[in-house]
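In response to reviewer comment 3 from the previous cycle, which asked for concrete evidence that the modeling workflow produces usable outputs, we include below a single protein chain processed end to end. The sequence was submitted unchanged, and the resulting structure tokens are shown without manual editing.
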Amino acid sequence: MRVLENPGILQAILESLHSGVYFVGRDQKILFWNEGAERITGYLSQDVVGHHCCDLFPAPSEDQPGVCQIGGALAAVLRDGRPSYSDVAIRHRAGHQVFLRVWATPIRGDDGVIVGASESFDEDRTSRDSDRRRRKLDEHGCVDQASGVLSFGYIRTVLKECLLTSAEHGLPFSIACVRIDRLPELRAQYGPVALRGILHAVAETVTNSLRPTDCVGRLDDETFLAILPECNAIEADHAAARLQNVARHMTVKWWGDEFRRHRAL
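The workflow returned the following structure tokens.
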């Protein structure tokens, strides 16, 4: 079809896709960034085009490959010339981690030589389902407005239900607390707007690091409570280690400063 030979129409199609799509050259500098990528990552096209992919999306930790690092989908495609699929984590512009499913494909010139790569990605479907549930709970006043997780009142209700289920059916459950260090100091130094951003980033990262069946709520000003239904002691240890690892590598940026060291207990 001639319409598909028009570069402008092809670009418009790519721009309008709900999934994130971007192109890089051999040097991994970003050449194209669509609206879906803006929505998922929080970065606008003008923020990323012309920049190296690995500068914007470093690996979240030493044992987790990033989108652009060796071992990540994009680097493998540029090296081997074969399409690749992987699950990776990136840091959203707001600071929290987002887990993505990524497909990367080499782009070849007329001579067959690899000149770059395209990558498409989308959020894990469980994240989208969680967002829909959160919106419904928000309509009924069950969401903490400062952080976006369950309110203190609702997380108490969930805890009561888990205690009742455990007593009647013997099903185990576990809880984990995540406390933000130096929160009063950060509030005094940067103000309530920065504090809201920190709370939201920590809450989203903790939520995204747990199972879809787990619940995260606001316990007090500095602490989040995670309830892990049907989770025994061994599984709880694994979940705690995962949260510790995420907290150890998490950063929240505010006007050039970086906040670290959110502690999982």
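The CA atoms of residues 177 and 225 lie 5 Å apart. We consider this sufficient to address the reviewer's concern, and the full set will be provided in the supplementary archive.
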